[in-house]
Design goal:
Length: 317
């Protein structure tokens, strides 16, 4: 891979894929709708000569075709809002796959774990896809469309991430907690504080995603991106208090609290059905990655949380 395009480059995942590619000497095109955000991204990377940007609409396949025609790999990091998933996710998938098909390109699709539903077996790529939620079923259909036989020239793979955190994170479950702690405010934690859960540090995820994308035999398959193990909300808050000095209360939002808040907030209303993950957790296996790719990059939670919180605190000042 010598050239790549990152769709949704200014989002949480896109912002870590871009520097990972640049660090490997790969020429990168950042793709998105906001010229201001794309310009800021280029500036953030000190106007690296290997980084450029192109404006386009993820739902307009022709703009992707025009932007990606001279690249080797397409990284699809754009997403849709929870409350718009039912209407827009399939349209997004069709658009990016149609562009990859026209160009005959390899395409990496970044997705999550809702397809698995409750954990009933080891969390590897063969875990049954038997979701009990609307979002999970939508994601299963999305994955089936990505790997549809109707695409003859496009070569796709899907990487699945658990909940994540990191300096570029924007919409993760941990974000309200970390932002509140960094701003020395009363904070909320989505879910109970006792359940050990898996989180992946986004820079680690970026390394794994690009490593997978560089292997020709990775395509046509699902790949799980595991985190650094399990950690409870209590432990996350303990680390955050040490870094920020914030001793203010952190309020755990249970399913009933989320359900009530959802009466007034469409985003919170959509979270209710996936709150099972905050109670049960779901642990991804990295066996396939280790066997086919190599050692899993692991940033200890203490280090990753410190880096994330320090950046959030700098941005608040």
């Amino acid at each position: 891979m010598k050239t790549a395009i990152v769709l949704g480059a200014t989002g949480g995942t896109g912002q870590v894929i871009v520097p990972e590619l640049l660090d490997r000497g790969i020429e990168v095109i950042a793709f998105g709708r906001s010229q201001n955000k794309l310009k800021a991204l280029v500036e953030e990377h000190d106007y690296n000569p290997r980084l450029s940007y192109k404006l386009g609409d993820i739902f307009d396949y022709q703009t992707i075709v025009d932007a990606a025609k001279d690249t080797d790999v397409i990284f699809q990091c754009a997403n849709v809002k929870y409350q718009e998933m039912e209407k827009q996710l399939h349209l997004l998938g069709e658009s990016v796959m149609k562009a990859a098909e026209i160009l005959g390109k390899r395409i990496v699709i970044v997705d999550g774990i809702y397809v698995y539903g409750h954990q009933v077996a080891k969390g590897n790529e063969n875990h049954p896809q038997q979701p009990h939620t609307k979002k999970g079923k939508i994601r299963v259909e999305f994955g089936q469309m990505i790997f549809s036989n109707k695409w003859k020239r496009a070569k796709a793979l899907i990487v699945r991430l658990p909940d994540y955190y990191g300096p570029t994170s924007q919409n993760s479950y941990l974000q309200p907690t970390l932002e509140g702690m960094a701003a020395n405010k009363i904070s909320v934690f989505i879910g109970n504080l006792k359940t050990p859960r898996e989180y992946v540090y986004l820079p680690d995820a970026a390394k794994m995603i690009v490593n997978i994308a560089e292997k020709d035999d990775s395509y046509g398959e699902n790949w799980n991106i595991p985190g650094a193990g399990l950690i409870s909300g209590k432990e996350i808050i303990r680390i955050a208090r040490h870094v920020t000095g914030n001793r203010k209360i952190v309020i755990p939002l249970t399913i009933n609290a989320i359900r009530f808040t959802g009466l007034f907030n469409s985003f919170m209303r959509e979270i209710v059905e996936i709150m099972y993950l905050t109670k049960e957790g779901f642990v991804l296996s990295g066996e396939k990655y280790e066997k086919r790719i190599g050692p899993i990059p692991v940033t200890p939670f203490k280090n990753g949380l410190e880096e994330t919180l320090r950046l959030l605190m700098r941005n608040k000042n």
